[in-house]
Amino acid sequence: MNSVGEGCTELKREYDQCFNRWFAEKFLKGDRSADPCSELFHKYHTCVQKAIKEKDIPVEGVEFMGANREKADS
Amino acid sequence: MKIWTSEHVFNHPWETVTKAAMQKYPNPMNPSVFGVDVLDRNVDQQGRLHSKRLLSTEWGLPSIVRSIIGNTRTCTYIQEHSVVDPKEKTFELQSTNITFTNMVSVDERLIYRPHPEDPEKTMLTQEAIISVKGISLSSYLEGIMASTISTNAGKGREAMEWVIRRLNTEIEELAITARGTLRTPMAAAVTEK
């Protein structure tokens, strides 16, 4: 699966692999230890935020400077 | 405004269905979803996992139409908030479109829970609220959209079965590989005699 930011797909894959493993083997089994994926997520997240800003996607509740959210799509 | 609801039972336990739902895309039944991104994720005080995701979807218009009106204008973006409660065994998702909001609003809610009568099965309750804005014939269009959502929900369930089969195959293949790596040294030890 791709990321909305074309350059972020590889970072996304690495993060997803880490998360899916922790989710299935720890979280769902009641293991409360924190996921080991924060660094991977941070790199991926930075990339995605940039892509969202560039594409002007009106995401809510995410830091998003300079876009006019009231802009109507037509 | 149109409200559509449905209930479905999967013949798999809740953990299996939840793992699959988390990895639902890509799958051949929902080809219009071309991008999934995690915007945020955290575990709350009660141990529930919250995820905020962005889904990028493409209408599937013919490429000539896309080249005329431009690629960005045929993308629809959906924002999804989900909560997994591993103690209560619930996986709840809510999503809404964040583009074309001046024309239409589609809010969907899904809850996966163990089946109340059979813990080896999972119940999915789904609902969608559709609103077409500002034009007459809106209730007619809402009816069409509800019917499309119903068809897509069927595809979504097929998609889940596809993901579950894929995950099970991966597990089997790992087991076969593990057995294979054990057999080779064992076979070598036997033939050496």
TrEMBL record, chain A:
Transmembrane segments: none annotated. Keywords: Disulfide bond. GO terms for biological process: phospholipid translocation. The keyword Cytoplasm does not apply. It catalyses: a 1,2-diacyl-sn-glycero-3-phosphate(in) = a 1,2-diacyl-sn-glycero-3-phosphate(out). GO terms for molecular function: phosphatidic acid transfer activity. The keyword Zinc does not apply. It holds the Pfam family UPF0203. One of its GO terms (cellular component) is nucleus. InterPro entries: MDM35_apoptosis. Belongs to the TRIAP1/MDM35 family. This is TP53-regulated inhibitor of apoptosis 1.
TrEMBL record, chain B:
It holds the Pfam family PRELI. It comes from the Eukaryota. Residues 1-172 form the PRELI/MSF1 domain. One of its GO terms (cellular component) is mitochondrial intermembrane space. InterPro entries: PRELI/MSF1_dom, Slowmo/Ups. PANTHER family: MSF1/PX19 RELATED (PTHR11158). This is PRELI/MSF1 domain-containing protein. It comes from Onychostoma macrolepis.
